[in-house]
Write a structure and sequence with these properties.
homotetramer, 336 residues, alpha/beta, Rossmann fold, Dihydrodipicolinate Reductase, domain 2, 2 domains, 6-stranded parallel β-sheet
């Protein structure tokens, strides 16, 4: 039984906490940490956790714990990773690894030093049943050699006011939203990005302009193996949360989530044949959030490294910064 | 150049006339006949026909004509077929062949006597690109031996008032609507119906009750080769005109028109992913109406029999009557 | 914490046991019972159960237990339900309730006597996210008044040899396979069946004939509110496990699972655009099996009755028998 | 009756000729011109044309003709347009307008001088029922303001050897294949392109490298109104001919042809649910080729300008050249 403590009980942190408490095998949610008192009370009441902390360092003193799950604000990730590893814990951190290149490189160094500890980064899409299946099929060779990927990451317009409020600190649309897609692109294509060119604009919400940000943007990536990446990120999607990925190979192609269907129901009415869509990431990736933490726990038990690690965080951040720089300068950016 | 005269210039007759005038190779629309003066005037103005008649017998005296297309009221079909064949013309008749067993059997006799003439019945679905493709695939064996067919024939609710008005004379929902499906079922399964059991009701429009009719009904057919037929006909379809057919075989199955899509556009909006649907038979079967008359003309030129003939009309009518009888009696009806 | 004991650790029993052990909140798998020694050993090893029994009566003596989950052979259900209720436990039983009318009526009587205990029947489809969503939408009125249901229950042909072996004891295709569909039909239409007419055959596997059984069959049901039910059950589905349900109402219709897609991946290759399909019920209804037991546990905790009870088992069995009788006699069967 | 002469009887020219002969209203195919004797003989035999020419200038002397349809090699378009306009004919020219900027600008000048004549360019996709419907819906405002377009233009791999043979003269993948997409992008977004950045490679067919060409390539376009264009052109599509367009607006989005379905048949077999795909442009755009020539003829009769003219050819060529230049230089190219 792996004993876990979690920091951060916001929307995603709460979901992780619930999953650990009820849906992860061989794991126990022993402690929670949050600066929001109500979140702590809720967790104690609903999840039956034994320990609750307002201070992260205090939680790290609890030696009953085996591992720490970090679901706090992005600004805290890197230092909490370091603190937790130094305190002797296995660490799972939500994406993004960090919010600037300096701290993600530092995180890499720290993780490197604690090679005996499991470190895993929350690129949960790799654990989504459909994404994992696509990877397996590609490895089996059914599309030949993959040479192009198209990634859509579109947030529901219903969430746009939150994005506007967060815009100042978000690092911009590529750092905020494209990180998952960049990770998927590297994973499926098996290569690193060598250049990025990005354009975009504020087509509906001029509020983003203030921080040099966009409500919709596209990046065109060139990989070291000459493969092509197309990233489209947007914050004005009316039909819901649209995560779509297409991988084109020399002998076929795969599409994942072309219609981000809510379920298997099709409604026939005056409008026609209607497939309703998922409303957000917690609905779309419900299963993946369970599977990634399960994998983290399994890695601890079986003493093996997860397939998604600190390097994936470093490289994805690097590419997101290149996209951001290109978008701001309207120039092609070479990633050395 | 085959010279055609058409009788009936209503919605479908007009479409046939336009097709012959502009879209059928090796054919010329030489004459039209209608009891509605305005229809004649329109045809003369828009289709450039040389001859126009108010009286069918008059048109038959025109020996420049090679063939007659009958698109008049269902009540006229049988006698006009007979008159036209006797006058020495090839004949294409719209479905249904006739409105009672007596006259369709008489029509069969008449057609038999004029074996040197081409007679073709307007079961145009057989000439629809998708239906024809399905037939070809079945003949190639891709689904093994077909043993079950499910046919949906749903009229748009927008047309229900017309159906109510026509209910007294229509012969009921099976004779009016299921004829095409019965023909398809016989064609795909390669067997004749041995029994029928049908139920239904007036779920939204009690107006149909007056004539012992239904707004929605289902028949379950057993074929001589033990295959199963499911027919669902309805008049209250909100999403448009829904013609769907599924053929299940021992090694696979085919579905035709599961979503009766208007075109290749999918709309993504607040409702989700929306595929608009076709509004009616002229939209859905536009291509099939051309192809069937083209086949009729080709048969005349090449002196060969079309694959859909008078027997198909006789057998389909027989089955429709069995469905009607079963619906009215709530008893299983054996077709001898 | 509700403490559960399970009897039967076959394919589905094992899944229930795993779910209770790892995925159900507020529940603990305390005991297992099986006549197969290896199954017991596996459960002890993998699920960490405290108690293991070869004899059902022995398990019932364990007063640490709160509730019993019955996943044994269908022939055992009724008597185990009775024994467990009499011993003072809440009971969840897999479908079917029983294998003949006599014992299901007896089960109803027994359940009635233990009104203070929760009894729930495993019609898990009602707890499938898509089926539950459809129910909610219907209750919201989006399709008006439902008047027709079409249910497909097609087992993968890969499982046909098992079905042949089981044919003698299965009670025939309707009792074996259509029970879930009958329950769904009653649930969505809100009415009971008044008559059934069924046909079918051995189109590919004559082996079923020996027991008067079929490899594919269709029933046409008439409900007391005049609604129509179409049931198609088959054992020769080449593309996988195909459970599809369509509910037609006066103002629209819903389809659930028209393509029984494996996941959100579409493969584009020489064949075209390919959507792979689910292989069996454990894959298709994974989430539903969790949700139904969760509901059972919640009902115990919250002292409320589940929405699916013994009457649903009795009525569904009655209808399945009527279908069987009609199939065997080729006559319309009235259910009194 | 508009009397047409056609030059070029290759694959597309032959289709145009057949359409004019049999499917276009108020038009007559009076003359054909080809340097291939067999093509002329075929046309005389099958299409019943009155005049046949080996020399284009000879055809232009025939004053019975009203208009000329140019379907010859791309290298001939510009000079034949000029010759035909100067000879007093209305002109329809297949795309591309020309093969270098110099000659397309010259063509614009010539067309400008013959303002009394109808000149129309063969961007037939605008006349495809689905594309035209999408335009109409956008004009009705259903997706708000369009700000992004994604265009896929993928040729079937079965045609790749032809593309390799033609590579030297084709002008490269963007000029050869992206012209239609560029026209659609301008049309839907209502703006001109201001910059282009393109990458690509020879992922499967190194033969294209010799001419600095690619087998797959992507361009990212920025429009004057800041809208975004994504063009993906490829020559290795295994599932057929894949033309897909997505237009994203502030209030919704449209997708056209996401699955390039052959027809309305879905095949269910061991692979799953399979939708077969169209094999090539003549199959996909059959209806559009008729509709565009019909529009050309209607414009002549009604003395009005078609919506697609010489400027569309000039601007599209300019953008294709910018893509080519960017692809070759790996630099962002600004279009002045």
């Amino acid at each position: 039984m792996i004993k876990l403590g979690i920091v951060g009980l916001g929307r995603l942190g709460k979901r992780h906490a619930e999953n650990i408490a009820f849906r992860i095998q061989n794991a126990e949610l022993l402690a929670v940490c949050s600066i929001v008192e109500d979140e702590i009370k809720d967790a104690q009441k609903n999840l039956g956790v034994k320990y609750a902390y307002k201070d992260f360092s205090e939680m790290l003193k609890n030696k009953e714990l085996d591992a720490i799950v970090i679901a706090s604000s992005s600004t805290e990730h890197c230092k909490q990773i370091e603190e937790a590893l130094n305190a002797g814990f296995h660490v799972f951190s939500e994406k993004p690894l960090g919010i600037n290149m300096h701290e993600v490189l530092r995180a890499r160094e720290v993780v490197g030093k604690h090679n005996d500890k499991i470190f895993m980064l929350g690129f949960m899409r790799r654990y989504d049943a459909s994404y994992a299946y696509a990877k397996k099929k590609i490895e089996e060779g059914i599309i030949g050699r993959p040479f192009l990927i198209r990634c859509y990451g579109l947030d529901p317009v219903k969430a746009v006011q939150g994005a506007i409020a967060f815009s100042e600190k978000s690092g911009g649309i590529f750092l905020d939203m494209a990180i998952h897609d960049i990770d998927l692109a590297r994973w499926y294509l098996g290569s690193e990005v060598k250049s990025a060119y990005a354009i975009g604009g504020c087509y509906e919400y001029p509020e983003f302009k203030k921080y040099n940000d966009a409500d919709n943007a596209v990046a065109l990536l060139q990989f070291k193996n000459d493969a092509i990446g197309i990233l489209y990120v947007g914050r004005t999607c009316t039909h819901g949360y649209h995560i779509e990925t297409e991988i084109v190979g020399t002998e076929g192609s795969l599409r994942i989530g072309s219609i981000p269907q809510k379920n298997l129901v099709t409604i026939f009415d005056e409008k026609g044949a209607v497939q309703e869509c998922v409303s957000g990431f917690l609905e779309r990736f419900d299963q993946a959030y369970v599977a990634e933490i399960q994998e983290f726990v399994n890695c601890i038990i079986e003493k093996r490294k997860p397939k998604v690690g600190v390097d994936d965080g470093v490289m994805s951040t690097k590419v997101a910064y290149a996209c951001k720089e290109s978008f701001e300068s309207n120039k092609l950016v070479i990633i050395e």
